[in-house]
Predict the structure.
Amino acid sequence: MNRREFLHGMSRGAAGLSALGMTGAWASPARAAVAPSDQIRLGVIGPGNRGKDMMRHFLRVPGVHVAALCDIYEPRFAEGRRVTGESTPVYTDYRRMLEGAHELDAVLIATPLDRHAEHVLGCLDAGLHVYGEKAMAFTVEECDAVVRAVRNSGRRYQVGHQYRYAPWYRQAVERIGRGEIGKVTHIYAYWHRNFNWRRPIPDPSLERLINWRLYHEYSGGLLAELGSHHLDLANWIFDEMPHSAQGSGGIDFYKDGREVLDNIQVLFDYPSGGTLFFSSITGNHRAGFQIQIYGTGGTVELTLQDGFFYYEPKRANSAVPSDSTDEGVVTTPSLSTSSDMPYRGPGLPIEVPAEESADPSFLSAKAFVDSLRQESRPFADEEVGWSSAVPMILGNQAIRSGNRVDFRDMAGVSSGS
Amino acid sequence: MGTSFEIRLYAESSDLATQQLALAFAEIERVEAALSHYRPTSEISRINVAAPSGPVTTDPEVFSLLARGRALSVRSDGAFDLTLGQLVKKWGFLRGEGRMPSSVEILEARSQSGWQHLELRPSERSVRFLRAGLTLDLSSVGKGYALDRAASVLRSQGVVTALLGGGQSSYVAVGSPPGESGWLVTISSTSEDEGVVSQVRLHDAALSTSGALGKFFELDGRRYGHILDPRTGWPVETLAQVSVVASDGELSDTLATTFVVLGADSAPPLARELGVRVLFVDEAGGAPGLTKIDWPPEWAVERVRSPAVESPQ
C-alpha cells in the first residue's frame, strides 16, 4: 500500500472519503497563477522564533513582500518589523487580518500546533495560499479537514517539511531508490539535545503562551515538534506510511510541571516491512540530529547540513574463488577483521553542487513561491503533511497508552490528544 | 565564523539563566548560519555562488549588513573591504595558517576583489557582483554582529547585566556588574613579556581587538599576518594590535580591522568621525608603544614601560 492508497483508506476509516471530497481530481485554482514578475504579498500568523526565521527566508525570494503580521503576543510585532525592516501592518486577531485578504496572496502560519487547523482553514476560506508549519494539525480530524479544504479551495498548501528541499536529502533518497544501499529495512533517527526546551517568560501568566510546547493542550511534544521531520523522511524513503506504532518515554530529566515527555522512543512499522525508530532525549547532545538509513548494501547518514554514504564490506558469494586461481594473489600487509566493532572510518560525502546549495528553509520558501507563480503543486503538499502528521498523532497515542496502536483499525481514533 | 562564544550574565536563578543563554546562543547560531562563508548552505555562500550571474535578493538583515560594510569601504577609502574572499584564500588564511602565494595568484585574486564591484540595489534588496570571482567574506564583522544580536535577545528578556564574548577578541557588554562602572576587559600585549597594556571598563558598549599576529606565517625572517590590506592585496605591514571601543560589536569589529590596515597615523579622523575609542599597541620597537585616540586615562595601567603617546590632533 503506497502513501496515496493509505491516505484514502485511512480517511475512509476515519471520516469518510467522500465526505472529504478526495476524489483524486484536484480542483482548479479559482485564482489565476501569480505571474513570475508579480509581487507575492505574504501575511504571517505567528512571527515567533520559527515564524521570524521563515520570514527571513521568504524575504530572500525575489518579489516577496511581508504585508501583514499577526500575533496575540504583541512584543512579536516589534521583532517581526525588525525582520521586515519596515512598519508592517500588525493584527492581534487573524480574522481581522483576513478581512483584508484581497491585499494578500498567501499566508505563512507558524503558530502553536493546536491552532494550525483553525488558521489554515481560515486562510484557505479567505482565498489565500498557505505555507503551514509542521505538523499539519493537532488531531486526525483536523488533518482530514485541512486536506479537504485545500482540495476544495484550489489553493496551494505547503507543509513546513523543509528537508524535502534539502539537496543532500533529495540526492540520498534518489540514490537509495536506485538501490545503492540495497534493500532498506530500518531507519534509526535521532534528535537529541541537552536542553530543557523551556523558554524564559517575563511573567508567570505567560507560561502557557510561550512554553506551549510543554503542555498537552497545545502540543504534540517531541514527536510533533522534532520527530515529524524524521517521520516524513521515512515516509519518503519507504514510499508509504506506517501502519502501526509503539513507544515509550517519560519525564525523567525535567520534573518542572511540564506535561509533555522529555524523552521518547517510538517504533513505526511500515506495511512493506520497513521500520522507523525515533529517539529524542533532552539530557545528552552527543547524537544530535542524525538519521541512519540502513540497507543491506550500506548505510546513509543524514544530518541538518550534510549526508554520507557507507558501504557494507563485500562478502564471499562463491565457494570457488574465480579470479585468483589463474592469476595468483598479491600479498599486502592489510588486515581486515570481521569483528562486530562499529565502523569508525569516514563515509563518502554526498556532494552538492555549489549552485544548488542553500538553506533548506530558503529552498522550501522559494519552492512555495514558485508553485504559486507556476501554478504547480508543491512537493511537500497536503498529502505529505497529512502522511506525517497522522502517524505522529497516533504515535503519541501509542506512547501514552503503552500499547501498540494499529493505524488500520481507525475505529475509536478520534483525537491525538 | 567558526569561533567559540561565551556569555556571562546575572539572572534571578540558574534555571532562568540557562533558558536565557539558550536563546542567546540560538541567536548566535542563527547569525552564523546566515553569514558564515564556511557553510555551503549559508546566505553568504548562496550570494557568493549566484551574484556573479545576476542580482540576488536577500533579506533586510543581510542586505543592511552588506550596505553598512560597503559604506565603511567608502569612508575608509578602501581600507575596509568585505570582498576579500579570494585574497584570503590565496594567502592560505581561509582555514590554515597562511602561505606565500605566487605573484600571479595575488594578481588574479586582486582582480577578483574590490568593494567597487559590489552592487547593492536597496529597492530590490539585491546583491550583484560586477566582477567574476568576487567573494564575500564577513569574518571581520560576523562575530561582532552576532554578539550584538545575542545581546539584543538578552535585553528583550529583561537581562540588564551581561558580557558576551567571541573568540576572546570581541566583547559586547550589557550594563555593568553590580557595584562596578563596567565589565573589566583586560587588553594584553601580544609580546609575552609586556603583559597587560590597558584595563577597560565596558558599559553598554563593545570592544574588539584585532592584530596581524592573531594568525601569521613566517618566511625568510619576516612575519606575514592574516589581515590583508585591500588596497595592495598583501598582508598589512604593521604588526600593531588595535583595540576599538564602540557602541556596538559590529562597529568595533569592523573598525578594529580597518584601523590595523590604516595604521595609527591615518586612523584618527575616521575614529573621531565615528565617535569611537582606539588603542594602538605597536611592538615593533620591543616595548609596546601605545597610541590612544579618546582612550580614557583611567583605563591605563602602570606596567607599561614606554610612555604613552597621544595621537596627533
